[in-house]
Amino acid sequence: MISNNLGEEEIRKLCLANLSAFKVLLPQGFYRQVKKNGSIIPFDLHKTEKLLDLFDLIIVSQKDYPQIESQAKEWSDIGIIAVVTKDSSGASVYVSKRRRDYTAFETEITDETGAGDVFAAAFANATAAYSLRFFPFELEYTKEQIQEFSARQSKSL
């Protein structure tokens, strides 16, 4: 679901239309306002509390809100999977009141535009795929290729 520029009522209707669907909130930029000089002003997170219980997974950048870690823990306390991305430092995943940190893979960055969107889409897709376990033959990479890449980075999956 893409809910750019939708109001609270429209988002609620879309989420309630299919209760069994896995719903992901990607509020990149929603919790912040960028001033003309480039400085960032965080929004009040509590303005969206009424909608949060409609989502299964929330992925948000640490850049969006300086105190997002404590908010992510609160989300996990009510059953939402919360992911806080931290640029080249990786991400923290909050599930069932527990936090697990993941370091980022080392890569050569040529342009970071859209990196958070790509991460969010890949994470949401992987989470949904893992929970459904359908169509594994459609993976672009083999399990061995993913494991080899992980081993080269000294990471365990």
UniProtKB/TrEMBL annotation:
Name of the protein: Carbohydrate kinase PfkB domain-containing protein
Pfam families tied to this protein: PfkB
Domain Carbohydrate kinase PfkB stretches: 67-129
UniProt-listed Gene3D superfamilies: 3.40.1190.20
Organism in which the protein naturally occurs: Candidatus Gottesmanbacteria bacterium GW2011_GWA2_43_14
Domain of life per record: Bacteria
InterPro entries, per database record: PfkB_dom, Ribokinase-like
